[in-house]
Specification:
Chain lengths: ~160, ~80, ~230
Amino acid sequence: MLKLDWNLLFTIINILLLLILVKVFLVKPIKNIIAQRQAEADEEKKKNAEEKAELDELKKDYDEKLKEIETLKYEKLQEVRLASEKEYNDIIDDANKKAKRITEDAETMAKVERERMLDKAQKEITGMIIDAASKVVASSSESDQNQDSRLYDRFIEKAGDEK
Amino acid sequence: MNTLIAIGAGIAVFTGLGAGLGIGIATGKATEAVARQPEAEGKISKLLILGCALAEATAIYGFVIAILIIIMLNG
Amino acid sequence: MHNLAERLMDELNCNYIFTIPVLGGIGISESVVVTWIIMAFILLASIFLTHNLKVHNISKKQAFAEFLVNWLESLVGDMAGEKGKKYSLYLGTVLVYIAIANVIGIFGFKAPTKDLNVPAALAIMSIALVEGASIYEHGVKKWLHKFTEPIAIVTPINILEVFTRPLSLCMRLFGNVLGAFVIMELLKIVVPIGIPAVFCLYFDLFDGILQAYVFVFLTSLYIKEALE
């Protein structure tokens, strides 16, 4: 029991052999199978990632299309709105023009009427003044009559202008 | 001669004294540690068993020496 | 009383089973033969466990085998640290071997660790692995320089440590198994039935596996220290 001999060497060889046996028959197969499973899991993961990427691509495409449609819709709407606005503006313009013309017509007519009235009044007043003046002046010299009539005319004209 | 051998072997086995003291102290400290932190019991007991196994070694050395004395001197 | 001592001695002695007739006869001791039996057992168990491995739909047997390998690897890998992971095969195998060798006494064999040759061989292999790992990791120059660390004056102690470490490993394992065996034999003589079964549980099973663990733990500790 308490002596060292060749058996020490045999034991070392035995244990080294045991190491090899364990490595070849136990650890290696198990590691292999775990590595295989890991590889499979990795592949699955990769596949999943690829599928996801594809799906993402599809979604992006779809989104883009949706955006395009949206833009198109907006453009069309804008167009329609612009057209309608133009029409509306045209109508308003038309109406405005018409109204303006009517107002102008009315104004011109009123002016003409007033001028005519003024003219008439002027003539009447002139006549009246001349009558009055000739009555006043009848007593005075007949020769000055024409000159005075012209003087009055000028006066009245000025008064009318000032108005 | 035989008496002397027996006495020598007995003295060699006295190393058990140190191992006993060491294991006792270690166990006491471990108990304190568990009382202070009951959640760390698993770790502490693992360390305690390991420490005890190491402390036991001195007693084992004494025992081996005792056996050696008996066998070598008797044989 | 003399009869008892003789019986004890007879039990303790490891006899030669047979002799190889070269160099004047090399005796093959019982421990080597029992080691062969253990090797055969481990081999058969390995073949049984790794038979018919599948990637999917694994059987309970395969699950157990995978669990065993992973558990052992993580157990000894944690002890040896990050760099010492590549030595986990040796540590795990030695752990299993010593554990089986210590408890094989229950089955009527003579425990190989009771023969001084086996613990000595294991301790020598362990210290060779530790120093080899150190040289592999740091190179010869750094390995030699490590003996003078932390200061030059401790160099003799460091060199001495190379010899005391395997001696301590060897003696711890050998002494524990021998002590347990002697106590068990004495107990069996004093109380033949009942009590020995309880103590057998402690000395053969618990202490045997614990000593295997301690041996591997210390070896991995040395490896970890050597790789720093």
